[in-house]
What does this fold into?
Amino acid sequence: MAQCGIIVCGFADLARQTAIPPTHVMSILDPDVSVPPELASFAPNQRLELRFGDVIDEVPGVRPPNREDIGQLLSFARESLGPAAAAPHLLLHCHAGYSRSPAAALLAMAAAYPEMPAQQAVDELWRIRPNIWPNLRVIEIGDQLLGRDEEIVRAVRKLYRQRLIKDPDLARRMAGYGRAREVEAAKLA
It folds into this structure.
């Protein structure tokens, strides 16, 4: 998201994306995963590390995202992308760059650029990273904390619907990953 100074990726792209160092990094890791070595050089004030699983509902043995996590995400986004930030370049990553970090990117834009319509942010992120499927739990919590009255949730539902139209088998795969609630959300768009 060059216009907003946001880059989204997974572990596989970290080396390439950190070759020109971003000003800030947001890492969303599973609780038991080591910090990627590419991120060791970033100072604590340049980096936020969140640890939660890529789940949208309670799953035994998996730590889900919660309000505290998403509150930290929003605060970090405001600091790293907001009006006081000079030439911001925020790198957001999770394991695959498919679900948690795209959700975080959408919330980061909503926090730092509250005047930007959620649909515009979703469309731009989908344009540059077409295989995204933002984590609905992260989106729901962030939308609520930002007081956006489900604007971001509705935009993500539309994205789900568009993805399912292009790839009907995706519904089966996502349901198999425990993400049936997101597939159902697409029907509400």
Notes: The chain has one domain: 2-186. The CA atoms of residues 161 and 186 lie 5 Å apart. Residues 2-186 form a domain with the Protein-Tyrosine Phosphatase; Chain A fold (CATH 3.90.190.10).
